[in-house]
Design a protein that fits this description.
single chain; 282 residues; alpha+beta; Glutaredoxin; four-stranded antiparallel sheet; 7 helices; 14 strands; globular
Length: 282
């Protein structure tokens, strides 16, 4: 059984499964992506730098094509906390400065980019589920959102494929089917969030992602700005999250992290079974 089908059959929770990364650096690349596409194209050293500075580094493309077309590449910097984006072109990948991308003002990176971006992981060499489910999702989004939608390399969480990222907010949805995709995209462009497929916000720590999803479901809160993170205090396997809603109420959640049973393959290529760690409201 494919990892995404198994995760779905086990009803594995998705909320809180997004690795916290405030800034994203998206590099255009039309080559055939391998299992470690980012390392292959940009170099392992640059990928390590991105991890050290907490930047989500991804390759993006509209479609696979002639690598010669990548003589000039578009590069987009996104800050999911301030919801700013900037775009520029590069002719030499050596010009990419991860430290600057992590800490400098977004406006200093390039030309402001205001059009929302939709990312779909299709990195099938990394995990077959991303190719099978991701391609179907890409085709569905291409009907009305072709200019906003990009394929991307590994996001994390292949078992939640199809994965859809909405930028600049860094909202990540999982188990998105072809019929779901256009509906979720339209909702995002209208300033709405659907908690039924929500994995989390990349700018927030995992416990806060879980608390947001629970609060949205309980309070029927649909607007992106209906939930604001005040604090998230984490100590080992315990966390306390405070969220604010437009009515001025502060909602406080206690959470606990622990493994979820039964152990399962967390990717199609996994050799061993794992019991993923999930945050639960205590």
């Amino acid at each position: 059984m494919r990892c995404s089908a198994l995760s779905e059959a086990l009803d594995e929770p998705m909320a809180g499964s997004v690795e916290q990364r405030v800034r994203w650096l998206l590099v255009e690349d039309r080559s055939a992506w391998g299992r470690k596409a980012t390392d292959d194209v940009l170099g392992a050293a640059l990928a390590r730098e991105a991890k050290r500075f907490g930047v989500r580094l991804l390759l993006i493309r509209r479609r696979e094509g002639d690598p010669a077309a990548d003589a000039v590449r578009r590069v987009i910097l996104v800050d999911t906390a301030t919801r700013e984006m900037a775009i520029r072109t590069v002719t030499d990948l050596a010009d990419l400065d991860i430290e600057a991308a992590a800490g400098a003002p977004v406006g200093a990176f390039g030309t402001p980019h205001a059009e929302p971006i939709l990312l779909v992981c299709t990195n099938g060499k990394r995990d077959a589920c991303c190719a099978l489910r991701g391609r179907a999702l890409m085709n569905a989004l291409a009907v009305d959102h072709a200019e906003r939608t990009w394929e991307c390399t590994h996001l994390g969480g292949h078992r939640f494929a199809g994965n859809l990222v909405c930028l600049p907010d860094g909202i990540v949805y999982g188990r998105v089917t072809a019929p779901d995709g256009p509906r979720l995209a339209d909702a995002y462009l209208a300033g709405k969030v659907d908690p039924s497929r929500l994995r989390g916000r990349s700018a927030w720590p995992a416990p806060a992602q879980v608390a947001e999803q629970a609060l949205r479901v309980a309070g029927h809160l649909a607007d992106i700005d209906d939930v604001r993170l005040l604090t998230c205090e984490v100590a080992d396997a315990h966390a306390v999250v405070s969220l604010a809603t437009p009515d001025g109420v502060t909602h406080r959640f206690g959470l606990r992290a622990g493994p979820i049973a039964p152990p399962r393959a967390i990717s199609c290529a996994a050799d061993e079974l794992e019991a993923p760690i999930h945050w639960r409201i205590a």
